């Protein structure tokens, strides 16, 4: 039994560490906050009942965040805690009883505040000037991100009035829904992946290296806590009012509450009204007003005893499933989508929910005409979390997954290890044909500016283009009749297409869309095969001899050139003057300073991508190798470097550099 409990505790700890890592380090939510908190509660319970399994590193005792290597690490003069969570009024009543036991009934006042969903920050002010801003990090120390915080317009850099000489203000950096949507609209235009939610985006933005980029994100800030050795007032409420006169943005919704009933009213009000706020909140924070009382209560290992968060449950609504439709992505991946009877959820009308893939539908056990529960978690897209079986009609049929592509009728295939079905008709399935052309014009490929996905779709429907070679036969006269196409834009498109004839071979090779041939692989291929002819006629054996080219890629290249339509397209591209040969300066190096030296990069790099780093090594005559061994000269470590770093340290002969030191090394030339 006890072994079982031990294993359960360990597995929960491991799981929660993983979620924390994703959440705080990579700004990703692998599960909903609600599910996360349930697991945490379960662990707390098990640990309290089984104190023999105590571990100071347990996620129940530690603030989840971490420190990155990209900013200076600064210790907090006053530790930054997390908050205890409660989900129902019973929890709150328990908390209030504990407090009354210490101070007596009616002796305690509370301040109720909105719980802003962003990233917390501690800002030091000296003599009325902002001096330093630090993230919460692990609570003991955080990242110094002063320059990024200075770009936030509602954080005062200088103060007014009668402020103390030295103190910290703590608060939350967040994104309004509107600014979040704007960022995503722009990303959509640029063909970039969309951000998941305002919280993760705000937190990620704060950790960007270039503060000019941070400024563009239009972050907001609200301050909710004054901290210092001495307090210029006796209550939290008064401190907030004072901070306001000094120039801080203090939440206008905060409310002084005399008792639990007033607190409950506040909570009930905001549980309904929160969707009308211009920003997201995930609950309410309650704080004891009197500072002396706060000090008497003190802290647990993780949170103040004088404060409590009340978290709103993710809203769940029931609605009817009207149909399941199947979308074909640009890579041929099939995504089932549920069309729902429109319903209001978390402030927006929901009509659709993603069903992910066949397994998900099976797992839900979805039938036609089912009544389903829909929830909005941390993500923007709502999902179906359950079915109301009481309302299922007796003769309703189970949803049967489609066998053929809804766009072109081709029989779908399932590839091992992948959750989605695919339509294999790459060359003639309409979304895939369009997708291939969009890929061809994208920035990392032929970089044909002005030719957006909508225009390509229109051109395809008008039967003017069917593969990348067709772009080069387009005329301005053909473009003009398209919707919303002005003379000037048409001219720009023609010019951009013409300009793409300058793009080097490796990008063209990436652009033609051979499966598994990404940017890096394309480069490696061009290094070894100077012309498209050489590549086309290379045998599988010759291909796999190239560094990083495995049999899968080799076969995919063969497959591509077996198809007469592809050969014809390549021939036409050649005729139009597209570069299908290696540039003379392809192998040119910048310097020889790394000659004879070997490099390996590990961990999460933030100053450059791994590919860019490897390219820098090559351009300076160094060599990249793929494992830590006696042959390795330099190991360059990013954030969270793991086993490779350890191995290198153990070997003791390898020089370990951080990213900046690596840059310094090559700039010595
Ligand atoms: N989905 C996931 O994978 C995942 C992973 C880790 C954590 N989480 C979520 O994060 C929570 C833990 O995060 P946490 O440690 O930041 O705690 P928390 O979010 O529960 O509460 C503490 C934080 O609340 C913020 N806050 C907002 N308004 C405030 C106000 N008015 N006064 C004081 N503080 C205010 C502060 O930033 C403070 O650090 C979990 O309970 C979970 O919901 C989710
Ligand atoms: Zn198809």
From TrEMBL:
<feature type="binding site">
    <location>
        <position position="429"/>
    </location>
    <ligand>
        <name>Zn(2+)</name>
    </ligand>
</feature>
<feature type="binding site">
    <location>
        <begin position="82"/>
        <end position="83"/>
    </location>
    <ligand>
        <name>NAD(+)</name>
    </ligand>
</feature>
<dbReference type="InterPro" id="IPR036420">
    <property type="entry name" value="BRCT_dom_sf"/>
</dbReference>
<dbReference type="GO" id="GO:0046872">
    <property type="term" value="F:metal ion binding"/>
</dbReference>
<comment type="function">
    <text>DNA ligase that catalyzes the formation of phosphodiester linkages between 5'-phosphoryl and 3'-hydroxyl groups in double-stranded DNA using NAD as a coenzyme and as the energy source for the reaction. It is essential for DNA replication and repair of damaged DNA.</text>
</comment>
<dbReference type="Pfam" id="PF00533">
    <property type="entry name" value="BRCT"/>
</dbReference>
<dbReference type="InterPro" id="IPR033136">
    <property type="entry name" value="DNA_ligase_CS"/>
</dbReference>
<keyword id="KW-0235">DNA replication</keyword>
<dbReference type="InterPro" id="IPR001357">
    <property type="entry name" value="BRCT_dom"/>
</dbReference>
<dbReference type="InterPro" id="IPR041663">
    <property type="entry name" value="DisA/LigA_HHH"/>
</dbReference>
<keyword id="KW-0436">Ligase</keyword>
<keyword id="KW-0464">Manganese</keyword>
<keyword id="KW-0479">Metal-binding</keyword>
<keyword id="KW-0520">NAD</keyword>
<dbReference type="GO" id="GO:0003911">
    <property type="term" value="F:DNA ligase (NAD+) activity"/>
</dbReference>
<dbReference type="InterPro" id="IPR004150">
    <property type="entry name" value="NAD_DNA_ligase_OB"/>
</dbReference>
<feature type="active site" description="N6-AMP-lysine intermediate">
    <location>
        <position position="115"/>
    </location>
</feature>
<feature type="binding site">
    <location>
        <position position="423"/>
    </location>
    <ligand>
        <name>Zn(2+)</name>
    </ligand>
</feature>
<keyword id="KW-0460">Magnesium</keyword>
<dbReference type="InterPro" id="IPR003583">
    <property type="entry name" value="Hlx-hairpin-Hlx_DNA-bd_motif"/>
</dbReference>
<dbReference type="InterPro" id="IPR004149">
    <property type="entry name" value="Znf_DNAligase_C4"/>
</dbReference>
<dbReference type="Pfam" id="PF03120">
    <property type="entry name" value="OB_DNA_ligase"/>
</dbReference>
<dbReference type="GO" id="GO:0005829">
    <property type="term" value="C:cytosol"/>
</dbReference>
<dbReference type="Pfam" id="PF01653">
    <property type="entry name" value="DNA_ligase_aden"/>
</dbReference>
<dbReference type="Pfam" id="PF12826">
    <property type="entry name" value="HHH_2"/>
</dbReference>
<dbReference type="GO" id="GO:0003677">
    <property type="term" value="F:DNA binding"/>
</dbReference>
<dbReference type="GO" id="GO:0006281">
    <property type="term" value="P:DNA repair"/>
</dbReference>
<dbReference type="InterPro" id="IPR013839">
    <property type="entry name" value="DNAligase_adenylation"/>
</dbReference>
<feature type="binding site">
    <location>
        <position position="408"/>
    </location>
    <ligand>
        <name>Zn(2+)</name>
    </ligand>
</feature>
<dbReference type="InterPro" id="IPR012340">
    <property type="entry name" value="NA-bd_OB-fold"/>
</dbReference>
<feature type="binding site">
    <location>
        <position position="287"/>
    </location>
    <ligand>
        <name>NAD(+)</name>
    </ligand>
</feature>
<keyword id="KW-0234">DNA repair</keyword>
<dbReference type="InterPro" id="IPR001679">
    <property type="entry name" value="DNA_ligase"/>
</dbReference>
<keyword id="KW-0862">Zinc</keyword>
<dbReference type="Pfam" id="PF03119">
    <property type="entry name" value="DNA_ligase_ZBD"/>
</dbReference>
<dbReference type="InterPro" id="IPR013840">
    <property type="entry name" value="DNAligase_N"/>
</dbReference>
<protein>
    <recommendedName>
        <fullName>DNA ligase</fullName>
        <ecNumber>6.5.1.2</ecNumber>
    </recommendedName>
</protein>
<feature type="binding site">
    <location>
        <begin position="33"/>
        <end position="37"/>
    </location>
    <ligand>
        <name>NAD(+)</name>
    </ligand>
</feature>
<feature type="binding site">
    <location>
        <position position="113"/>
    </location>
    <ligand>
        <name>NAD(+)</name>
    </ligand>
</feature>
<feature type="domain" description="BRCT">
    <location>
        <begin position="589"/>
        <end position="669"/>
    </location>
</feature>
<comment type="similarity">
    <text>Belongs to the NAD-dependent DNA ligase family. LigA subfamily.</text>
</comment>
<feature type="binding site">
    <location>
        <position position="405"/>
    </location>
    <ligand>
        <name>Zn(2+)</name>
    </ligand>
</feature>
């Amino acid at each position: 039994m006890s072994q079982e409990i031990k294993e359960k505790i360990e597995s929960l700890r491991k799981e929660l560490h993983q979620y924390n890592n994703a959440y705080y380090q990579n700004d990703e939510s692998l599960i909903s906050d609600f599910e996360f908190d349930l697991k945490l509660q379960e662990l707390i319970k098990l640990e309290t009942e089984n104190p023999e399994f105590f571990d100071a590193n347990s996620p129940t005792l530690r603030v989840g965040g971490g420190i990155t290597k990209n900013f200076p690490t600064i210790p907090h003069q006053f530790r930054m805690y997390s908050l205890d969570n409660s989900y129902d009024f019973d929890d709150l009543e328990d908390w209030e009883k504990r407090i009354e036991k210490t101070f007596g009934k009616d002796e305690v006042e509370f301040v109720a505040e909105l719980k802003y969903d962003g990233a917390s920050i501690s800002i030091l002010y000296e003599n009325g000037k902002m001096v330093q801003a630090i993230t919460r990090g692990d609570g003991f120390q955080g990242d110094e991100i002063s320059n990024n915080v200075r770009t936030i317009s509602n954080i005062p850099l200088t103060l007014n009035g009668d402020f103390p000489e030295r103190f910290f203000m703590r608060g939350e950096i967040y994104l309004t829904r509107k600014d979040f949507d704007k960022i995503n609209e722009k990303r959509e235009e640029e063909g970039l992946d969309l951000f998941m939610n305002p919280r993760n985006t705000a937190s990620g933005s704060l950790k960007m290296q270039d503060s000019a980029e941070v400024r563009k994100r239009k972050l907001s800030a609200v301050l909710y806590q004054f901290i210092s050795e001495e307090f210029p007032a006796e209550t939290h409420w008064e401190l907030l009012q004072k901070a306001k006169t000094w120039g801080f943005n203090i939440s206008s919704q905060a409310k002084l509450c005399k008792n639990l009933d007033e607190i409950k009213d506040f909570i009930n009000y905001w549980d309904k009204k929160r969707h009308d706020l211009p920003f997201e909140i995930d609950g309410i924070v309650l704080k004891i007003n009197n500072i002396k009382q706060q000090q008497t209560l003190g802290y647990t290992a993780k949170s103040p005893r004088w404060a409590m968060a009340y978290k709103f449950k993710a809203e769940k609504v029931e609605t009817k499933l009207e149909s399941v439709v199947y979308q074909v992505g640009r890579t041929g991946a099939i995504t089932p989508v549920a069309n729902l009877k429109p319903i209001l959820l978390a402030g927006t009308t929901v009509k659709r929910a993603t069903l992910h893939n066949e397994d998900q539908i099976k797992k839900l056990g979805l039938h036609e005409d089912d009544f389903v529960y829909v929830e909005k978690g941390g993500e923007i897209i709502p999902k179906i979390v359950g079915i109301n079986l009481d309302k299922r009609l007796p003769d309703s049929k189970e949803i049967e997954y489609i066998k053929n592509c809804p766009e072109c009728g081709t029989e779908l295939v399932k590839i091992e290890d992948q959750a989605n079905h695919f339509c294999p008709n790459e060359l003639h399935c309409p979304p895939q044909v369009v997708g291939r052309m969009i890929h061809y014009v994208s920035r990392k490929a032929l970089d044909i500016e002005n030719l957006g996905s909508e225009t390509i779709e229109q051109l395809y429907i008008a039967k003017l283009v069917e593969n990348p070679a067709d772009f080069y036969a387009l005329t301005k006269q053909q473009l003009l009749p398209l919707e919303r196409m002005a003379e000037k834009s048409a001219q720009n498109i023609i010019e951009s297409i013409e300009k793409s004839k300058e793009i080097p071979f490796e990008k063209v090779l990436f652009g033609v869309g051979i499966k598994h041939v990404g940017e890096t692989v394309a480069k490696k291929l061009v290094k070894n095969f100077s012309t498209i002819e050489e590549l086309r006629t290379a045998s599988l054996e010759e291909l796999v001899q190239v560094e990083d080219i495995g049999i899968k890629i080799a076969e995919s290249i063969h497959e591509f050139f077996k198809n007469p339509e592809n050969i014809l397209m390549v021939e036409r591209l050649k005729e139009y003057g597209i570069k299908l040969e290696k540039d003379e300066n392809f192998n040119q190096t910048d310097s020889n300073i790394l000659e004879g030296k070997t490099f390996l990069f590990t961990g999460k790099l933030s100053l450059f991508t791994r590919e860019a780093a490897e390219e820098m090594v090559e351009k300076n005559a160094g060599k990249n190798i793929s494992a830590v061994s006696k042959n390795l000269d330099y190991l360059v470590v990013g954030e969270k470097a793991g086993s490779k770093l350890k191995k290198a340290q153990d070997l003791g002969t390898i020089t370990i550099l951080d990213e900046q030191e690596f840059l310094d090394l090559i700039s010595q030339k």
